[in-house]
Amino acid sequence: MKYCFGVDIGGTTVKIGLFKTDGELVDKWEIKTHTENQGEAVLPDIAASLKEKMQEREMDTAQVSGIGIGLPAPVDENGIVKNSANIGWGYKEVTREMEELTGMKVASGNDANVAALGEMWLGAGRGHKNLIMVTLGTGVGGGIIVNGQPLIGAHGAGGEIGHLCMNYEESEACGCGNKGCLEMYASATGVVRLAGRRLGADDSPSSLREGELSAKAVFDALKEGDQVAGEIVEEFASYLGHGLANIAAVTDPSVIVIGGGVSKAGSILLGYIEKYFQEKAFFANKDTKFVLAELGNDAGICGAAKLIL
Question: b/e per residue, 101-130, with b = 16+ CB within 10 A?
Answer without folding.
Answer: bbebbbbbbbbbbbbbbbbbbbbbbeebeb
